[in-house]
């Protein structure tokens, strides 16, 4: 099997000059796949994703995007390289309209982005109805749709979601997962961190269980769901 | 009782001066609020930068007057305005390059940047006094009145006169155009939207590929334009004195905070709230009340709540009330 499209390989590092949070952690995702990072609180799930995105210093390891070493690039430069990132919080421009949020997502593009806007509106029909409304007035689930839509506007080569379902109701969560599957079916690799481990593993083509910043279990979502040890330790039997 | 004359007196002494002063404050407060929203610090150098920009316009105006250039009934200063804005914008960009950029790169606390702006304020203050001196400068020329008292009386036959000075009309028209242009820019252009995005959520703006240094540069240029326009209008309407311009810092901040720091619409509303409060509290109401009330109730005193020397107390009082009861301002801004 050839090298994955996006891989953070053997990552060791932490924030600033602080202690290492990640210990030789490896995360990868391929086109058409949903890769999910799960694990107990404080395991370094979000940190692992931020490391892939260049938001912390790696003492060891490297990040490859489509075979290119991007370890030294800043997050902004990685966005230009084609990484779309949706932070867990503060992921929309609250005082701007939905449409303006999406426009800002396409800021780095110099071509006509109307077709992408149309695709986002097709994927999230509610955003079309609310496009003139300030994004800050929307419900939690709708805000997440704006956030994902904003990231999609750059036409990324890979989409990274940090706990997209944090703080939304179970019904909205299911719907968001459906949308994310739809995005992945278009061939876009999706890497996400999730609190709701069971639901996330159900849709994962590739799953990583992290414990204390290191890979504890790796496999497809189904494999991990079937793994007695994983079930015992995180899924409550 | 003579309500018509009462209204004319009110318009002449309170409404029209209040609108003119409010427009000037609004432009100044817009500059303060833009710097706060995008560069995230309170720019104490704002008043003295305004003095600097106005001084440049005055020097250019004198130059034009020497050359015999005039703008007909309009003040020559309006011709000097564009070049004055350009020069002040360069000075502001230079200041940013040598002072503020350093702290931005270091991600310094806002309070440190505020102190740095205090230093910039003193330097600007010194430069202005060195070049043009601390005294009053009058640079208004062209027609003084659109409607003068004699014409008004001849036109209407009322005993109270409504005078409309050219500088007042210019202030209101120019301020209106500037505000319209600013809002058009912020809401309709890509660069303007990127400024709002940056002000709203800096991290996400960076993730969206918005270049922060470009946003900062454009902000300084816009602030320079607003500041020089505000200073020139104030100078034409009243007079130019460096110390007065420094003192205007207080009403500017009061206006920006009353409206909600970082919110441009709030800055405009705040400017008018402060202006009307100041004018209303320091105006001697005897004349208006004398017309409006029955003869028996005619006031004997001046009915002036506060001497004009204390007008800054009004800004202070409003500032305190807003900070105590509505820290985010009338329009939702950032709390201080």
Please, could you describe this protein's structure?
The complex is a heterodimer of chains A (237) and B (336). With 237 residues, chain A is α/β, with parallel strands linked by helices. Chain A is built from 10 helices and 10 strands. Chain A has helices at 45-53, 75-81, 98-105, 114-123, 125-129, 140-152, 170-185, 197-203, 221-226, 228-234; strands at 6-14, 22-29, 34-38, 57-65, 68-69, 83-86, 158-162, 190-193, 206-211, 214-219. Chain B has 336 residues and is mostly helical. Chain B has one domain (3-281, 312-325): ABC transporter involved in vitamin B12 uptake, BtuC (Orthogonal Bundle), CATH 1.10.3470. Helices cover 72% and strands 1% of the residues of chain B. Chain B is built from 14 helices and 2 strands. Chain B has helices at residues 3-39, 46-66, 77-105, 110-132, 149-156, 166-188, 190-200, 202-207, 212-237, 242-247, 249-259, 264-282, 286-292, 311-325; strands at residues 145-147, 164-165. In chain B, strands 1-2 form a two-stranded antiparallel sheet. In chain B, helix 11 packs parallel to helix 14. The longest helix of chain B has 37 residues, at 3-39. The radius of gyration of chain B is 21 Å and the shape is globular. Chain B starts with a helix and ends in an 11-residue tail after the last helix. The mean pLDDT of chain B is 93. The chains are: A alpha/beta (237), B mainly alpha (336). The A-B interface holds A 75-76, 79-80, 85, 87, 90-96, 100, 103-105, 107-108, 150, 154 and B 190, 193-194, 196-197, 200-201, 203-210.
Largest sheet of chain A at a glance? Answer: 6 strands, mixed
Number of alpha- plus pi-helical segments of chain A: 10
Please report the total strand number of chain B as a whole number.
2
CATH topology title of chain B: ABC transporter involved in vitamin B12 uptake, BtuC
Alpha carbon gap, first and last residue of chain B = 47 Å
- Measured by DSSP, the beta-strand proportion of chain A falls in 15-25%
């Amino acid at each position: 099997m050839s090298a994955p499209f996006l891989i953070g390989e053997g990552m060791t590092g932490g924030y600033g000059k602080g202690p290492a949070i990640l210990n030789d952690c490896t995360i990868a995702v391929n086109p058409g796949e949903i890769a999910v990072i799960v694990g107990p609180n404080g395991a370094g799930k979000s940190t692992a994703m931020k490391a892939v995105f260049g938001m912390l210093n790696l003492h060891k390891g490297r990040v490859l995007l489509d075979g290119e070493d991007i370890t030294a690039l800043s997050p902004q430069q990685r966005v230009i390289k084609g990484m779309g990132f949706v932070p867990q919080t503060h992921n929309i421009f609250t005082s701007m309209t939905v449409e303006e949020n999406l426009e800002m997502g396409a800021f780095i593009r110099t071509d006509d982005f109307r077709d992408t806007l149309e695709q986002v509106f097709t994927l999230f029909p509610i955003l079309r109805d609310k496009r003139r409304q300030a994004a800050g007035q929307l419900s939690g689930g709708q805000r997440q749709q704006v956030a994902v839509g904003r990231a999609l506007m750059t036409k990324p080569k890979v989409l990274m979601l940090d706990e997209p379902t944090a703080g939304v109701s179970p019904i909205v969560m299911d719907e968001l997962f459906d949308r994310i599957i739809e995005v992945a079916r278009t061939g876009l690799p999706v890497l996400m961190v999730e609190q709701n481990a069971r639901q996330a593993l159900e849709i994962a083509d590739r799953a990583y269980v992290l414990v204390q910043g290191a890979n504890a279990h790796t496999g497809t979502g189904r494999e991990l769901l079937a793994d007695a040890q994983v079930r015992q330790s995180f899924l409550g039997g | 009782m003579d309500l018509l004359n009462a209204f004319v007196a009110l318009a002449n002494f309170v409404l029209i001066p209040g609108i003119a002063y409010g427009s000037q404050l609004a432009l100044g407060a817009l500059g303060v609020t833009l710097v706060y929203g995008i560069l995230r610090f309170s720019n104490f150098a704002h008043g003295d930068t305004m003095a600097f920009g106005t001084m440049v316009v005055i020097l250019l105006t004198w130059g034009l007057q020497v050359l015999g250039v005039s703008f007909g009934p309009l003040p020559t200063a309006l011709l000097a305005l564009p070049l004055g804005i350009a020069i002040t914008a360069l000075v502001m960009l230079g200041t940013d390059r040598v002072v503020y950029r350093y702290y931005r790169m270091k991600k310094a606390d806002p309070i440190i940047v505020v102190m740095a702006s205090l230093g910039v304020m003193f330097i600007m203050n010194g430069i202005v006094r060195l070049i043009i001196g601390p005294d009053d400068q009058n640079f208004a020329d062209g027609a003084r009145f659109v409607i003068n008292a004699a014409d008004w009386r001849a036109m209407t036959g009322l005993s109270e006169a409504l005078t409309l000075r050219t500088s007042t009309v210019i202030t209101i028209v120019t301020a209106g155009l500037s505000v319209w242009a600013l809002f058009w820019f912020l809401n309709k252009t890509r660069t303007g939207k990127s400024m709002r995005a940056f002000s709203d959520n800096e991290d996400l703006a960076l993730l969206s590929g918005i270049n922060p240094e470009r946003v900062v540069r454009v902000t300084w240029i816009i602030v320079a334009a607003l500041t020089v326009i505000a200073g020139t209008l104030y100078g034409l309407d009243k007079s130019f004195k460096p110390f007065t311009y420094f003192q205007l810092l207080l009403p500017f901040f009061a206006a920006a905070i009353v409206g909600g720091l970082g919110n441009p619409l709030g800055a405009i509303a705040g400017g008018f709230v402060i202006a009307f409060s100041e004018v209303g509290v320091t105006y001697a109401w005897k004349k208006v009340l004398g017309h409006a009330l029955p003869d028996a109730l005619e006031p004997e005193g001046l009915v002036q709540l506060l001497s004009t020397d204390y007008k800054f107390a009004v800004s202070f009082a409003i500032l305190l009330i807003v900070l105590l009861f509505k820290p985010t301002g009338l329009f939702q801004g950032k709390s201080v």
